[in-house]
Amino acid sequence: MSDMHELYQQLIIDHGRKPRNFGELTSANHIKEGYNPLCGDKLTVYISEKKGVIEEIKFVGSGCAISMASASMMTQALKGKTLIEVQHYFEDFHEVVTTGSHEACDRLGKLAVLQGVSAYPARVKCATLCWHTLVAALRDSHEVISTESVE
Questions:
Q1: What does DSSP assign to residue 24?
Q2: Rounded to a whole number, what is the distance in angstroms from the first to the last CA of the chain?
Q3: Which of 49, 63, 55, 57 is nearest to 24 (CA)?
Q4: How many CB atoms lie within 10 A of CB 127?
Q5: Which residue has the higher pLDDT, 136 or 147?
Q6: What kind of fold does domain 3-146 have according to CATH?
Q7: At 31, which helix (H) or strand (E)?
Q8: What pLDDT, in 10s, does the model give residues 28-74?
Q9: Which are the contacts of 76, defined by CB distance < 8 A and separation ≥ 6?
């Protein structure tokens, strides 16, 4: 087993069992619910953003280990980032989990371990649900985001 594959498995298990930044955020000024009807993953992202910077970010929900781990790692990575940086993270993460891009991995830090999802196309929606929900929350759209309509 490669070191990257082993790290991937360990981080998914750790973050899946003990997600970081799990809970509601009463000071949130952006809230969005996301749902993957194909597997039942469901989560809500809470963001406290001020002057274009993510001051605090949390989530609640239930789902598979990949979905929970991705949300946990996303919240850790994005706290303190500007909205422009968040958009770049979203683009790089999406590229990594859909194509396995090594170039984008270099820009993602610890999130790069989720590159392993690219080997399992059915799991990409699990890993990206929180990211699409985050983008929808920041755009302040008012409907539930579903991964049926996103890649």
A1: -
A2: 29
A3: 57
A4: 30
A5: 136
A6: Sufe protein. Chain: A (3.90.1010)
A7: strand 30-36
A8: 999 999 999 988 999 999 999 999 999 999 999 999 999 999 999 99
A9: 20, 21, 110
